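Appendix B, example 12.
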Amino acid sequence: MSDEDAAAGESAPGSDDDSQVDSESDDAAAARKQNGGSLQLMSDNDDHDDDADDERAAGVVSLEGQEDSEEEDVSAASSSDTGSDDGDEFGSGSDVSDAEEDGDEPLLAIEKQAKILDRKRAKAEKAAAAEAAHIGTDMETNMEEAERFVLPSGIEVEAAGRGPPDLALISRRIKETVRLLDGFKAAKLKENETTAKGKKVKQPLRPRAEYMDQLKKDLATYYGYNDFMLDTLLGMFSVPEAIACIEANELKRPITLRTNTLKTERRELAAALINRGVNLDPIGKWSKVGLVVYESTVPVGATPEYMAGHYMLQGASSFLPVMALAPQEGEQIVDMAAAPGGKTTYVAALMRNTGSIFANEINKQRLKSIQANLQRMGVSNTVVCSYDGRELPKVLGEKSVDRVLLDAPCSGTGVIAKDPTVKSNKSQQEIYKCAFLQKQLLLAAIDLVDAQSKTGGYVVYSTCSIMVDENENVINYALRKRDVKIVPCGLEFGRPGFTKYREFRFHPSLEHTRRFYPHAQNLDGFFVCKLKKMSNTKKEADKVGEVEAEQEEELPAAEAVQQQAEPSTSGRDVKAYGNVAQEGMRIGRTKKGKSTVKPGNESTGNPVPHGT
């Protein structure tokens, strides 16, 4: 063996030792990485403690550097896994280090990643909520502006006037205008807030009056109402409810029957009509004798049951005054406007043909219909007469009866479904004529009743009108002229009467009256009031009222008659009443110059059709 080989042989064991030491150090480093902690290096040489301490300190520093690099790797991995481009805003190693400080044991890599993802998600949700709150108001405003209705320009109006009206366009414009007017106040507030922030509104709102004017024009074109009727409806209801009432007037009311309890019961009548092919149901819990007909294979006005007087074809709204009157057996009753006899026969049925009924009708041509219905229905306690209702206290005598039913002649504004001409042929002057006649008839009805009656002393006043001048105003007048009070009418449904309406202020007890509307109860527009006569004495003239009347501007009777519209031919035109007394006629005028009738004031005119 040469010297070089011997030298190589001697150096070989040393090389193996070095490689073995390197491999051992690599295994130790791997073990330290897996445990994630700081491992202390143990030296086998006890003679060199200082050198060992230096080596251990150096080992700790290197391991801490490795842990920092591991945390950065985990953060980078979690960021790349979630596909986030947010950088350090949503993921950082500081969040995990805080979690490590809170806990006693270090977190594993997967736990660190879960913590980072949770915090990242929470921050994203918080940022999204803040952004939505910041831009939410602007988005709503922009959407409203995009959907906001714009009034037609003058050119569009002129172009539309040249040809036939586009009903589809008008209908759509009515709906958009109603939607805008319904939320006009809120929209105006938002517009003011937007302007206050210095932002420009793309489609600023116009004055409310302009939208109302456009709505009236469209309603007049589409439905055929005149300005007076539209002003009344829009003044009485909110805009959406006024449109609902107008649309309800376009539909016919259901066919209703009233069972004649003098000859049959409702259950027996319903069974007989069902066998004949009539589809019907009870009218409701509020009536024990009413039936509503949905469809029929036979004419309901020509069945054997009808001919035999088992039922009466009668509108459901005309049940209400008789129910409020509540006649008792053995009483004396007056029906001041009886034709065609539906209410009179109902009163007779409730009285079981006892006592006596005076069925008065001024129009002699309609007496035949009353007599025919009385005979067919088997009524035997009724006397038919034909007098001017205002003269009945002189004919029958004052304080001579127990109860009076006055279904007064009226404008018929509640039965437009029956007579569509009411939409266009009514005026304020005609309403004044109605109100004056109704006041006279009501005072006569009160004078007929005996306040000392043991069972009675009641007057029921009703109209098929929705006008305040014909209803609450008339009752308020009677409260001033006679010693009467308003009592509950016993009807559990319907809306209370007005105690405040525009410039009118009525007696608080008028809340006991009841109003019915086509869109609310699916009945004809109706008003019902029940009065109790407290004494037979008449009240003295109200001095305050006289002073106010003297201060009001008086119009000559002839001038007022010229201003009045021609009487309507709808319903019942009671021409026999003639021109009512024109003496002392006063029409109040407000400061704005609009003609009004205040409580206690009167106007003149001819009688008008009866609505039922």
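The chain has a mean pLDDT of 76. The CA atoms of residues 481 and 541 lie 7 Å apart.
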